[in-house]
Amino acid sequence: MFKLIATWSLAMVTATGLAAQGLFSPAIQVNDDVITNYELMQRATMAGVLRAPGNPEDVAREQLIEDRLKLQAARRAGTVPNEEELLEGMAEFASRANLSREEFIAALANAGVEETTFRDFVEAGLAWRNLVQQRFGPRARVSEEEVDRALNQGSGGSNVRVLLSEIIMPAPPPQAAQVQARAADISRITSEAEFSRAARRFSATATRGQGGRLPWRDLSELPPVLRPLVLGLAPGEVTEPINIPNAIALFQLRAIEESDYTPPTYSAIEYAAYYMPGGRTEATLATANQIKARVDVCDDLYGVAKGQPEEVLERGALPPSELPTDIAFELSKLDPGEVSTALTRSGGNTLVFLMLCGRSVAIEAQGTPPEQSAEADGDETPVDPVAERRQAITIGLQNRRVQSLADNFLAQLRADARIIEK
Given the DSSP bridges, would you call strands 33-36 and 26-30 parallel, antiparallel or unpaired? Predict the structure, then answer.
């Protein structure tokens, strides 16, 4: 149920007053485009009205910067929506609140949000969606073989195992653009030897000494975001660069096979993260190695963190699909009690001492067989459950692949952009 909350009211503020307060002055420059203080205030108001998660001012800043980047790319590609498409998009967004476009605009106005703010928000979203479909749609096509793999991976009859190599390169903000360009070059590699050389030279993980090579791993053990990307590779091919906090990851498929063994699925992954100031400096990594030598289970980290602020130690248990992407990557490589020091936070200034505590096996619920369901419903034209599932898997694989490509493209646009805070 959509509820509008008038967090701020701008109705009594005149244009003269706004100008006097500098609200129409530039606040942020994104390449050649400007974001004004007034736009920031309006978007923050709308974020509060729509109950967007997070601090409204922070949400507004991030959204508007990304909107400028999306529109700039869309203009270059010719995918900006026309007036008819824009009005339809506004109506579609309003319908999510069970309101007409006019009713939604009026409700926003009562909360102090102008129609132009809503139009700009929808325009950026539509332009980006059009661009993503044009740019990445053809690359996201899913083959019958990929659907077969996904079906087998999720069935009780067989399982897919993959042999991967990894490169995870630190990318703190000052070096982000340079690392992104290097990652784009690595993603075009098709030689295992060449990828291994790049891993030894650039990767920050413990596997760099082995050229980034990982052992055989069940596909189900990989983070959900990585599975469709791996299934779309042929041996020797490399994923598009995957942006994670302060780093960029790439994976090369070396081999893939199916087996009759089906591994358990997990309802939750329990882990502990101890945050160490200093990032990947020699001194901090040396301290991390000393801690690694004296801890065997996650509970031991409470002793390490004793007397320090509570936030230096995080203990979590989340479903695999809800784990942060970079945390999920590292945990998928660990056994309980093992540690990774490949990740950082705070722009590379904090080292993450990550330990896997354990995995909780999911108990599968027993459902009604499709044949019985069709009979119970008395449907004269029963749906083919196999065809229906294949279609759902195809759409899911395509959507995840497009979303991953789009996220990486936006991250590259941001890394290449000139963003100046006024």
Answer: antiparallel
Helix (H, G, I), strand (E, B) or coil at 40: helix
- Tell me the torsion sign for CA atoms 117, 118, 121, 124: negative
- Are the beta carbons of 80 and 74 closer than 8 angstroms? yes
Q: What is the 3 state secondary structure string of 214-269?
A: CCCEEHHHCCCCCHHHHHCCCCCCECCCEEECCEEEEEEEEEEEEECCCCCCEEEE
Architecture of the domain defined by 146-263+386-416? Roll (3.10)
What pLDDT digit, counting tens, does each position of 301-356 carry?
988 998 899 889 998 888 887 888 888 888 888 888 899 998 888 888 899 999 99
Length, in residues, of the chain: 422
**CATH no. of 15-136:** 1.10.4030.10
- CATH class belonging to 266-361: alpha beta
Tell me whether the CATH fold assigned to 15-136 matches the one assigned to 266-361: no
